[in-house]
From TrEMBL:
Protein name listed in UniProt: Outer membrane protein beta-barrel domain-containing protein
Signal peptide (from-to): 1-28
Keywords for this protein: Signal
Gene3D superfamilies for this protein: 2.40.160.20
Pfam families in UniProt: OMP_b-brl
Amino acid sequence: MCVILNLLIMKKILFSTMALMAFGFMNAQENANVPITNNGFKQGDVFMTGSIGIGSESTGDNKTNSFNVKPKAAYFLTENIAVGAALGFMSGKTEVPLAPDVKTTEFSVGVFGRYYFTPGSTFSVFGELGVDYIHSKQEALTEDTSNAFRIGLAPGVNYFVSQHFALEATFGVLSYRTNNPSTDGVDNTDNFNLGLNFTDINLGLIYRF
């Protein structure tokens, strides 16, 4: 029941955001000949963005709760290209009857680059390529750690609602991750993901300085 409720809430937020951005796009098209002076990006701009996620899943008596946050900051090297850095933190706990709780924490640091197709407009589409280093720890009866590298490519959109604030949505499409466990005798794991699901959709808010 909780899973269904969470999916419905996520769908409502996603569709509402996309509807707002679509309205902004149509409005921008209607006013294409009107100079935009307040909204949009330009060379030399600095912005901060990020995402926060809270999840809860129940299957019978098994329960999983998670929390994640990933702030980002970037600088426009040119009119269309922005480069920046990102930090990340994830914490999760799985509760299973008659078994120890499984706690997972994950820290990440990375760099990313974006190409904006119409940076000076209120509405813009962009592509993002990012590389992250990830350190993970899992605690149950024993404690296991691992290190990983992740490469991800994702398209996104942003819509300025004021001179400094914009809504943002990114959609994960292509990613590759290689995981190196610290436990002796455990092989590395390579994961390639191509597709789109709710865990790959991130909604955020941009602040332009």
